[in-house]
Amino acid sequence: MFDTMTMTKVLGAFCGTLLVFMLGGWAAETIYHVGGDHGYGDGPKQAYVIEVADEDGAAEEVVEEEGPDFTEVFASADAGAGESQWRACRACHALEPGQNMTGPSLYGVVGRDVGSVDGFNYSGSLSAVADVWTPENLNAFLENPRGYAPGTSMSYNGMRNIEDRADLIAYLDSLDN
């Protein structure tokens, strides 16, 4: 049943399969490996370092660098650039007074009382966090709506760039003089 030719075929198939896997691994390592020396020696550099406690048990204090103050950024905001930021808001909000869509009209929103647009059903969490939509309140809300007002029905994930938020608020503020 098993003669020399059958055993040679089985051994050849095994060696061929091993060769294909080894060449595939080498090709994948060459194509997808980022930096370092391909895992030999000291190894690749770490993307980030996790701080651990010293021998005495005290962890080093990590000092986070604060970004620029919003009032300074808002003072130099460009309303023209804010008009291009409006694209993200346009899907749910209108700029015409009294025209509500999924969200309330944003005409005159800067300086307006929170939850004061007639005919729009606000979620209760908004009125609990602020009384008036000041530029600072709008900045905090636009950065992370669900974090600023937990339970809000606004599904927007937020605008991460502080300059973009300042430009958008300056644009909204310029609409109603």
Automatic annotation (TrEMBL):
InterPro entries: Cyt_c-like_dom, Cyt_c-like_dom_sf, Cyt_c_1A/1B. This is Cytochrome c family protein. PROSITE patterns: CYTC. Residues 77-176 form the Cytochrome c domain. Keywords: Electron transport, Heme, Iron, Metal-binding, Transport. One of its GO terms (molecular function) is electron transfer activity. It comes from Salibaculum griseiflavum.
